[in-house]
């Protein structure tokens, strides 16, 4: 075994095979040269043979070509080096009893020195037998464990052996659950297909009269094709009855259908933040998709065309975290009683672009059904919609509020005494922080409604009766 050069001192290490070796104080560490032909382990120390004591074996460098060193058992002068299994350990003292490692080494035969100790190689044989016994025992244990495990696997109960539970034959889901709302509304929700894409809508009359968003059917209104796909799979051609770009609403009529299930319209003026709602539509052409959430906010000024939309498309939106994606537009937003309280119209999607549509990030907007009902009713009766107006042009003031930049002659604002430069900060009890907020607040009301406007810090208030004008359709 190769002798290492002296290194950092460390405690002597016990060979795992040597159960009887006990170190004493080690001898001082020095480097011992060895022969190029043969490298052997050396244990050098002051040695005095004693009766019945095991002889310690040491080797000295051999001459090249010499098979047996001369008088290898002669006593040597004290040295200051001790090498244990190739590791030099410094220190002095009597060495412990040495038992050779399991690796076989060739040693010269010592001369007779009284009663000899029992051969130490017997311990190696015993160790070998013990290892063999352990291997055999371990193999038998593994085989027995395998047989037991195999037997347990075949006899252990399995979920696959248990028969399935009885089918749920309940005809109705509990009232107020998402399941109940979905069962009630799905037959009334349709998919609308145009040459430019697809969207959603819902039936308001048995003969296939459908309410949807203006931006869903806008291309069809200008001469394109329009088809309505009902929940039962029936497909029908449709025509545009009328539309209102300013509120992003439209009504279409499916041809040759009857017996369809209309929705139940609720109201949006009593909605509360945190109230549970369900959105139904056809996102990404996945018709009949149901998602749920809550009303996140109310009276949120939103432009139907996003940030690039004009002031003419601002709506007083319901904000919800129910997942709304491209294709959901025109579908219903429903309360837990199964009543339509809004029409899904827009989403906030920070990573969207003109070439790539964004998906839901938990911020969706719906047109309040109170406003949509009024507009749809006008369209059904007259084919046109009337837009509620105050008779002013406004801009957002840097200190907050809507600054009046122009007053329409003969309009509601002029009659109320509103002047150019006035900053409207409240409409009734609703705070106005931007120009869009004032437009949205006015659009949420009907022509003929009276409102109180707060000017500036409240030093001036006026009462105005809102007017109306036909919505221009290009």
UniProtKB/TrEMBL annotation:
It holds the Pfam family Trypsin_2. Keywords: Hydrolase, Protease. Residues 379-459 form the PDZ domain. The keyword Heme does not apply. Residues 22-53, 95-107 have a biased composition (Low complexity). Residues 108-118 have a biased composition (Pro residues). It comes from the Bacteria. This is Protease. It comes from Kibdelosporangium aridum.
């Amino acid at each position: 075994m190769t002798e290492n050069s002296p290194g950092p001192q460390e405690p002597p290490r016990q060979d795992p095979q040597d159960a009887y070796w006990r170190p004493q104080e080690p001898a001082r560490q020095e480097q011992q040269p060895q022969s190029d032909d043969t490298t052997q382990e050396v244990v050098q120390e002051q040695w005095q043979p004693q009766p019945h004591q095991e002889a310690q074996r040491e080797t000295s460098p051999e001459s090249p070509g010499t098979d047996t060193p001369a008088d290898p058992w002669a006593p040597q002068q004290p040295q200051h080096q001790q090498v244990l299994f190739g590791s030099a350990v410094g220190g002095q003292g009597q060495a412990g009893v040495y038992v050779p490692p399991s690796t076989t080494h060739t040693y010269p035969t010592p001369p007779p020195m009284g009663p000899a100790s029992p051969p130490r190689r017997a311990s190696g044989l015993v160790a070998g037998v013990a290892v063999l016994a352990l291997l055999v025992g371990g193999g038998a244990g593994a085989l027995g464990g395998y047989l037991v495990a195999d037997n347990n696997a075949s006899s252990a109960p399995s979920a696959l052996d248990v028969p399935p539970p009885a089918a749920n034959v309940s005809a109705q889901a509990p009232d107020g659950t998402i399941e109940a709302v979905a069962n009630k509304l799905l037959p009334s929700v349709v998919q609308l297909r145009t040459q430019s894409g697809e969207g959603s809508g819902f039936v308001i009359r048995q003969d296939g009269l459908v309410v949807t968003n203006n931006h869903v059917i806008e291309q069809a209104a200008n001469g394109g094709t329009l088809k309505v796909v009902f929940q039962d799979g029936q497909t029908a051609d449709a025509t545009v009855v009328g539309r209102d770009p300013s509120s992003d609403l439209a009504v279409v009529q499916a041809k040759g259908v009857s017996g369809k299930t209309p929705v139940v319209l609720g109201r949006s003026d009593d909605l509360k933040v945190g109230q549970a709602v369900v959105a139904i539509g056809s996102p990404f052409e996945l018709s009949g998709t149901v998602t749920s959430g809550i009303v996140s906010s109310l009276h949120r000024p939103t432009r139907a065309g996003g940030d690039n939309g004009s002031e003419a498309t601002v709506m007083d939106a319901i904000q919800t975290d129910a997942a709304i994606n491209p294709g959901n537009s025109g579908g219903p937003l429903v309360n837990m009683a199964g009543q339509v309280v809004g029409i899904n119209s827009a989403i906030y999607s920070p990573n969207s672009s003109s070439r790539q549509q964004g998906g839901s990030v938990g911020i969706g907007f719906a047109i309040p059904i109170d406003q949509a009902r009024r507009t749809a009713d006008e369209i059904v009766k007259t084919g046109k919609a009337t837009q509620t107006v105050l008779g002013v042009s406004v801009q957002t003031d840097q200190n907050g509020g809507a600054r009046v930049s122009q007053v329409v002659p003969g309009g509601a604002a002029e009659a109320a005494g509103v002047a150019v430069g006035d900053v409207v900060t409240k409409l009734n009890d609703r705070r106005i922080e931007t120009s869009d907020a004032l437009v949205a607040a006015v659009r949420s009301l009907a022509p003929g409604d009276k409102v109180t406007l707060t000017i500036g810090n409240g030093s001036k208030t006026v009462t105005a009766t809102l007017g109306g004008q036909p919505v221009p359709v290009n």
